[in-house]
């Protein structure tokens, strides 16, 4: 099997693949074919080098020190904030808060905003395709406050209807939190339009952007969302890194998420005065090395060009649907008109876990199970799916190998 595309592409796929050291290895004696990008993307050498450079050259705590290493580390850390501000088009860098990732960001909002502003009889609206991290924090908040969690239904194609959103939003709705792009189905939701409906009733709009940051255009001012969360590790960056965007006027009204260093101005035993945003929400020593390296991940996406990435991934995803449709007994889940590079499916008479293990024996990494979206799997009446998710370093030849391998697996069970 060739792992390098032989057809014309929007950029040099062979060069891109050499940027990712992990892709050069073999798994179970076979060339690695990595189709688990919705779980986490691989890291280019630029990101790996940035982590090493920090630890080898200027490892120091930030903001508090006046010595040269501390100043260098602080500058690099804050440069990532400025880079991310431009990447999502935030109005100012202070609206970018560093977190551990999307889950941490959603919990921050549920705690720091929800506990202060949500009361009994209020309603929080999410969709039926949410990741557990955009369900459980709101459930916990509703249980604590006596509020009600409402769910926008998902149709058979894996889409949600704005008519359903309109019927569910009312004067009691205080928070609407919806995934930009589904990790299980690939569906891209009309989050801008949903936000407009939320704002008509005075609700705040939060977007889970974990799957969108490297696949979709993200302009938080155009979206007019109140909060936007994403994770570094799903956009070629390090694990344990991410951001929460929030509008200044809302962030300034919120209570701190955690107490400790950095989020304070003055502390006495009688009273503590909190720091300004974004530091009010960044207690303690942060994940400095990985936040510094996150800048390199953003720069890598910018270097390739978001439009080029989207066009290429759309092309290989269409190819995947075409080739996988040849597999006997296959059923697709998530056939939305507008979707990112995720293909979820089941195969008659073969358990997803068995498929995953047999593909792994061929060096192909896919994800099997409920993908942290159990309510969505329940909606479809299945235990889980086989999910192949693609990134900019994947090729049509790899997809052809996947399709042929699935045909071989089906033949063994027939």
Automatic annotation (TrEMBL):
GO terms of molecular function: cysteine desulfurase activity; pyridoxal phosphate binding
CDD domains named among the record's database cross-references: SufS_like
Signal peptide: none
Catalytic function, reaction form: (sulfur carrier)-H + L-cysteine = (sulfur carrier)-SH + L-alanine
SUPFAM superfamilies from the UniProt entry: PLP-dependent transferases
GO terms classed as biological process: cysteine metabolic process
Cited InterPro entries: Aminotrans_V_dom (IPR000192), Aminotrans_V_PyrdxlP_BS (IPR020578), Cys_dSase_SufS (IPR010970), Cysteine_dSase (IPR016454), PyrdxlP-dep_Trfase (IPR015424), PyrdxlP-dep_Trfase_major (IPR015421), PyrdxlP-dep_Trfase_small (IPR015422)
Cofactor(s) it depends on: pyridoxal 5'-phosphate
Keywords associated with the record: Pyridoxal phosphate, Transferase
Domain Aminotransferase class V: 33-402
Enzyme Commission code: 2.8.1.7
PROSITE patterns according to UniProt: AA_TRANSFER_CLASS_5
Source organism, top-level taxon: Bacteria
Keyword hit for Transmembrane helix: no
Function (record text): Catalyzes the removal of elemental sulfur and selenium atoms from L-cysteine, L-cystine, L-selenocysteine, and L-selenocystine to produce L-alanine.
PANTHER family registered for this protein in UniProt: CYSTEINE DESULFURASE (PTHR43586), CYSTEINE DESULFURASE 1, CHLOROPLASTIC (PTHR43586:SF8)
Family stated for the protein in its record: Belongs to the class-V pyridoxal-phosphate-dependent aminotransferase family. Csd subfamily.
Protein name listed in UniProt: Cysteine desulfurase
